[in-house]
């Protein structure tokens, strides 16, 4: 199989961690006889330095014409970097918002997986996480409250602000289908999270999700109110497989779920649409405090590359091989600083990448 991947290394630790993910992809290509062609493009602060804009039209064109995008992270130190003296539309983050919008990525996937080897970092009581947990939060990314009409105006003698939330059947159906497709590749359970006891958008959400569920008789569907879900995530995280939810609920719940795993350097993510195209990136930022020191954990980015193999290229066996290689390296006791604990062996960014490659 031959695929064209647009690579955005970005700022801060971005270049270091993406280099390791590319090493792993190359090892997969060699072992399984595929060909991955990379085209590097600039986005974020490095693009501002080179072209004066966080994402150029040429860079966007290359991303659009590729089969998928691998992204490190963008942004610098938000108090000291000159990038943050620019107007908002010219700052690094504007590149990220623009590329997501232009590529039409409406589904954001964030796995929360507790590695047996790292359970010491999990803030929950041990009996709650015995045997680990493995869930996937699927968040709608382009609708809802964050994209509704908003205003702030004077009413009488005080200011009043409005944000409006709307969802169409089309918007709900396409993310629900994606969620059920992904559940079919996993443990065949979908928990749809809403606030249907209060919100009209949630009642429509529930109705459309139930219609989509009829096309997937093998998948178990349950509905959960968002406040209850927030509790259940810390009460019994093992009950979840795929959590399917709208934009704002997903924003909050995905951060909650990821912190239950305890390790920011291990959290991958994918942003998808109807076809096989996707953008893959770690959940963390550009970590300017540790950039250029060969200490950043590359695993979140390598796991994101594994998601690319699975969700964009349909290479499930290859994705599993990468995930198992990571698991083996952790089992052997190798750790970057962010996941270091007593009795383990400290390694740098490059060494971690090499170890994972050696297990492939
Ligand atoms: P951050 O995620 O970059 O860092 C938070 C803390 O976690 C820092 O102490 C950092 O050293 C550590 N950390 C993050 N990733 C790590 C890794 N792979 N290995 C070891 N330690 C790691 O968040 P922060 O500091 O709030 O933001 C820094 C910059 O990143 C800002 O400019 C922000 O706007 C940007 N950012 C970019 C994102 C993206 O490109 N998608 C997402 C989040 C933030
Ligand atoms: Mg968030």
TrEMBL record:
<feature type="binding site">
    <location>
        <position position="139"/>
    </location>
    <ligand>
        <name>substrate</name>
    </ligand>
</feature>
<dbReference type="GO" id="GO:0051287">
    <property type="term" value="F:NAD binding"/>
</dbReference>
<comment type="similarity">
    <text>Belongs to the isocitrate and isopropylmalate dehydrogenases family. LeuB type 1 subfamily.</text>
</comment>
<dbReference type="InterPro" id="IPR004429">
    <property type="entry name" value="Isopropylmalate_DH"/>
</dbReference>
<feature type="domain" description="Isopropylmalate dehydrogenase-like">
    <location>
        <begin position="4"/>
        <end position="356"/>
    </location>
</feature>
<feature type="binding site">
    <location>
        <begin position="285"/>
        <end position="297"/>
    </location>
    <ligand>
        <name>NAD(+)</name>
    </ligand>
</feature>
<keyword id="KW-0520">NAD</keyword>
<feature type="binding site">
    <location>
        <position position="100"/>
    </location>
    <ligand>
        <name>substrate</name>
    </ligand>
</feature>
<protein>
    <recommendedName>
        <fullName>3-isopropylmalate dehydrogenase</fullName>
        <ecNumber>1.1.1.85</ecNumber>
    </recommendedName>
</protein>
<dbReference type="InterPro" id="IPR019818">
    <property type="entry name" value="IsoCit/isopropylmalate_DH_CS"/>
</dbReference>
<keyword id="KW-0100">Branched-chain amino acid biosynthesis</keyword>
<comment type="subunit">
    <text>Homodimer.</text>
</comment>
<dbReference type="GO" id="GO:0009098">
    <property type="term" value="P:L-leucine biosynthetic process"/>
</dbReference>
<feature type="binding site">
    <location>
        <position position="251"/>
    </location>
    <ligand>
        <name>Mg(2+)</name>
    </ligand>
</feature>
<dbReference type="InterPro" id="IPR024084">
    <property type="entry name" value="IsoPropMal-DH-like_dom"/>
</dbReference>
<feature type="binding site">
    <location>
        <position position="255"/>
    </location>
    <ligand>
        <name>Mg(2+)</name>
    </ligand>
</feature>
<dbReference type="Pfam" id="PF00180">
    <property type="entry name" value="Iso_dh"/>
</dbReference>
<feature type="binding site">
    <location>
        <position position="227"/>
    </location>
    <ligand>
        <name>Mg(2+)</name>
    </ligand>
</feature>
<keyword id="KW-0460">Magnesium</keyword>
<keyword id="KW-0432">Leucine biosynthesis</keyword>
<comment type="pathway">
    <text>Amino-acid biosynthesis; L-leucine biosynthesis; L-leucine from 3-methyl-2-oxobutanoate: step 3/4.</text>
</comment>
<feature type="site" description="Important for catalysis">
    <location>
        <position position="146"/>
    </location>
</feature>
<feature type="site" description="Important for catalysis">
    <location>
        <position position="195"/>
    </location>
</feature>
<feature type="binding site">
    <location>
        <position position="110"/>
    </location>
    <ligand>
        <name>substrate</name>
    </ligand>
</feature>
<keyword id="KW-0560">Oxidoreductase</keyword>
<keyword id="KW-0963">Cytoplasm</keyword>
<dbReference type="GO" id="GO:0003862">
    <property type="term" value="F:3-isopropylmalate dehydrogenase activity"/>
</dbReference>
<comment type="function">
    <text>Catalyzes the oxidation of 3-carboxy-2-hydroxy-4-methylpentanoate (3-isopropylmalate) to 3-carboxy-4-methyl-2-oxopentanoate. The product decarboxylates to 4-methyl-2 oxopentanoate.</text>
</comment>
<keyword id="KW-0464">Manganese</keyword>
<keyword id="KW-0479">Metal-binding</keyword>
<feature type="binding site">
    <location>
        <position position="227"/>
    </location>
    <ligand>
        <name>substrate</name>
    </ligand>
</feature>
<dbReference type="GO" id="GO:0005829">
    <property type="term" value="C:cytosol"/>
</dbReference>
<dbReference type="GO" id="GO:0000287">
    <property type="term" value="F:magnesium ion binding"/>
</dbReference>
<keyword id="KW-0028">Amino-acid biosynthesis</keyword>
